[in-house]
Each structure stands twice: as structure tokens, then as C-alpha cells.
Amino acid sequence: MTHMQNRVQRLRVLIAQKGMEAAVLYSRENTRYFAGFTGTESTTLITRDQCFILVDSRYTSQAGKQCPGYTVVDSTLKGLTALSEVLQEHKVGVAGVEDEAVPLSIYRKYETNSPDVRFLPLESSLSGLRSQKDADEIWRIEQAVRIADEAFESILPLIRPGVTELGIAFELETAMRRLGAEKPSFDTIVASGARGALPHGVASEKEIQAGDGIVFDFGCIYRGYCSDITRTVFVGAPDPELRHVYEVVLAAQEAAEKMLGPGVTGSEADEAARQVIAKAGYGDLFGHGLGHGVGLAIHESPRLSRTNPGRLLPGDVVTVEPGIYLPGKGGVRIEDIAVIEEAGARILTGSPKQLRILPV
């Protein structure tokens, strides 16, 4: 059985357990995971004994090559009515849908076109099926991490007072592409000075100034899989409090990484980092969760957060990214990607984490 057939079989077991007769896949991530299709528009239908991928004329040839074992349905003239015809032909009465990914307008067309079909939510269960990565998936993530690591090191000499955050982001994204990335995995964050207190401060026209701390949060996609890395550096001598905050965040991150492993809950990992930050007096300034899963999507299961009691399993790939944000002054975040293995956690990110002060 191929890895794709194994994935489809696990999905079939899931829908059977939920009393469903089929799953309708809409998102590009799940379509790629279960069918192997990399086009931008499609609908995938997996029943208890057959697989279909519905595409228009732009993608029929591509789907035929990328999706062995799937029946390719040309939906050029029919649109979503093609799906209703297949559902009717195969007597599907209950189908699961990606309730968090499907736009309301599309969902209403499902219902209108197929009034005899009951559509039920499937999203969180699908995310769980993708959580544990196989060896090939982990290898792809490792390559995405390696590219991001190397690109970051290559652009550090370009950072100096007077250059803009946007200019630095451009150089970083260009370097990742030169090293083999398909594209960035999300909008690159370059947040300098007081803007470092914005956890998602995407690159702006602000010029770097001497003494600025700069929070870099970036990643790339390699063969469909994402990386996600954060490093904080300083241009010239840092503010004394931010220097101290850096050491606190680093200690919090290392405490969490040390205890990661099979059986650890998302909330326990989060608490390990949060305790270090709270003890230093900055508990109210670490507002987000410790981390999240990474794979075909930049944010997926499992979550490392106060609200997740779920236990980590071998094959989970997660970020570990505590941060402290001082309004009006700046912030510090440090983020690695770790893969959970039988013996603990293996850190994939290689970029150094010691305090870095760049020359002015």
C-alpha cells in the first residue's frame, strides 16, 4: 500500500466511525495530502470505495498524472453541479465537509445542489489525521528549515541603520528562493524598535536605527511543506531591559524544548515556558500560545497552548516560540521547529540562539 493509499484508508476509517459515507475535500492542503494534487482549484470526493477529483479543463491532465487511483471528473461546464451528480450517482446520503475551510457561499451550493445529502463537519478530525508526519514529510520540513536558516545567516551582514524593514524582508525572501524555496510560507515579519512589541508586525517602511532590536519571523515552503523560524537580533548595544528579556525568553524556550516528548500535553509544554516568564515578572506580556503544528499548512495540529490537553505523539512537528512584548519599547521572540520522537524532541532549527549584537 502506498503512503497515499494509506492516508485515504485512514480517512475512510474516520468517516465510517462518524457515520458518514464520503468526505468532500476543499482546501489545497487536504487535497494535496489525500490526493497528491497541487493545482489551485479542485474538489475531491472520497467515498467508501472510490476516489474522485473534480477539476476544470486547466487541470484535467495534471490531475490524471498526479492522482493515481482517482477518477478525474471534468467540471468545466458544470462547476459544483458535477459534485452533486457524482454524489447522486453513488447514492451518498451523508458527507463530511471541511467546515472551517469551505466558504459559506460554496457550502450553500453544496446544500442547494444536493438537497438529499446531509453535510456534516469534519475539519478538526481531518487536522488530526495530518498531525503525525511520515519520514518523507519530515524530510521536506527539514529542507524548508535548512533553507530558512541559511538565508537568514546570509542577510545578517546587510542589516545596518538606514535600511528599511521591507528591504530586509525582500533580501531574506530572495535568499530563500535562491536556495530552493517555492515561496515564503507566510508574510515575513521584520519588526524593529518599538514595533517589536507587535507579535505579527509584518515588514514596514520603517528604517532601522542604532540600538533597535529586530524580531524576524519567517519561513519558506519546500515541496509543499513549511518552515517557521523566529530570531531576535540587535543593531548596536541593546536597551538593558530588552537584553534581560532576551535571556528570559531564551530560558523559557529551552525549558519547554527540554521537556517535549511523547505523552506531554500541549498545555504542559506551554506552562513550562510560561512559568519561567512569569517568575521573571513578565507573565502578562506573553499573551499567545507557545506553539503550533507545522506541515502543509503553517498553522495546524497539534497546538501548544494553555487550552490544549491533547498529548503529543511521535511524528508531531511543532513550533516552540515564547515571546515577551514591551509596549513602546520592543519585544523578543525566539522560535524553533521540533519533531517529536520516541526519545524526546529533535530540534530542526539550526540558527544560533545566543544574543546577537550586529555592528552599527
Tell me what the structure shows:
The protein has 360 residues and is of the alpha+beta class. The chain has two domains: 3-130, Creatine Amidinohydrolase, Chain A, domain 1, CATH 3.40.350.10; 132-358, Creatinase/methionine aminopeptidase superfamily (Creatine Amidinohydrolase, Alpha-Beta Complex). It is built from ten helices and 20 strands. The strands form six sheets. It has a six-stranded mixed sheet with strand order 4-3-2-1-5-6. Helix 5 (104-113) links the parallel strand 5 and strand 6. The longest helix is centred in the middle third of the chain and has 21 residues, at 135-155. It is elongated. The mean pLDDT is 96.
The H-level CATH homologous superfamily of the largest domain, spelled out, is: Creatinase/methionine aminopeptidase superfamily
Average pLDDT, all residues? 96
CATH fold type of the largest domain: Creatine Amidinohydrolase
Oligomer: single chain
Spatial sequence of strands, sheet with the most strands: 4-3-2-1-5-6
Structure summarized in a few sentences:
By secondary structure, the chain is of the alpha+beta class. It has helices at residues 3-17, 28-35, 60-66, 81-89, 104-113, 123-131, 135-155, 165-178, 240-259, 266-279, and strands at 22-25, 43-47, 51-55, 71-74, 94-97, 118-121, 183-184, 189-192, 213-218, 220-222, 225-226, 229-235, 291-293, 300-304, 317-320, 323-326, 330-333, 336-341, 344-347, 357-358.
